[in-house]
Amino acid sequence: MKFAKALASATILAACTFGSASAAELVVGFSQIGSESGWRAAETTLTKQQAEQRGIDLKFADAQQKQENQIKAIRSFIAQGVNAILVAPVVATGWDEVLQEAKDAEIPVILLDRTVDASDDLYLTAVTSDLVHEGNVAGKWLADTVAGKPCNVVELQGTTGSSPAIDRKKGFEQALSGHDNLKIIRSQTGDFTRTKGKEVMESFLKAEGGGKNICALYAHNDDMAVGAIQAIKEAGLKPGTDILVVSIDAVPDIFQAMAAGEANATVELTPNMAGPAFDALAAYLKDKKAPAKWIQTESKLYTQADDPMKVYEEKKGLGY
Ligand code: AHR
């Protein structure tokens, strides 16, 4: 049976560990990407909190955006004989070998927030949003908002090769197909960071007549949008009015920008991926029944009509 060793050693522990503080600890390794965005930092905070609440000993490794560091961390977790591994994979490809090693060691792996191009028998489950759908929601909002008027769009992509960058682009383009008035005129990576988002937006503005030719910005995350908003202001234009701004994550800062009229819409991504992941792991260890391969989180659209300052206050208490 798959992951039999982990089950044997962890079932007894889990029985007295999950849901209550206990002397017996389940040991889980977590390979995190880094801290490129406000969303990522909140996911780290919440994963640590969720582990603590469940009495899990969480071994945390920050990969500083490098896949090779993630692979090293996973190998070290395997060598330590952890009961399970969480990994937020920085890019989609190149995981087969190390996931096979974890499987051979009978250690269940759970993917958090990003998907991989690997056979799904190499991991227990993936807790992610529907990344294509997120891009689709953003694109539909834009198409509805411009309502047939001609609109040149610039796009800030996430980290090259990451599943959210690939899928959010795809979903957005799907939403725009059939809307000949909407055209993506520039698209480049901003690596999910504020600094790069600003830098790349500056180059877009420069290349497009100071921005006069740009009608909307689609950013694959809020942090890049926040950086780009600054660039738009410095170029003497009004973000949210002269250039519409739609992005993804729903971090507190974007609600402040929305309240100021400088951002228009965002698609929410919950930073609490660990809660459902630990629940699935607990159920698996208890009942020996594998969870669904995909545990999908919601993707809610927020606009300026949603009382952004109220949402900002609510969000501040949720890991941000
Ligand atoms: O994988 C989720 C994405 O990673 C978030 O949208 C982004 O902010 C983060 O860096």
TrEMBL record:
Signal peptide: 1-23
Subcellular location per the Swiss-Prot or TrEMBL entry: Cell envelope
The keyword Ribonucleoprotein belongs to this UniProt entry's keyword annotation: no
Residue stretches making up the Periplasmic binding protein domain: 29-289
Keyword Signal part of the UniProt annotation: yes
CDD domains (alphabetical): PBP1_galactofuranose_YtfQ-like
Assigned keywords, A-Z: Plasmid, Signal
InterPro entries: Peripla_BP_I, SBP_2_dom, YtfQ_transport
Family membership noted in the UniProt record: Belongs to the bacterial solute-binding protein 2 family.
The protein, known as: Galactofuranose ABC transporter, galactofuranose-binding protein YtfQ
Organism whose genome encodes this protein: Sinorhizobium chiapasense
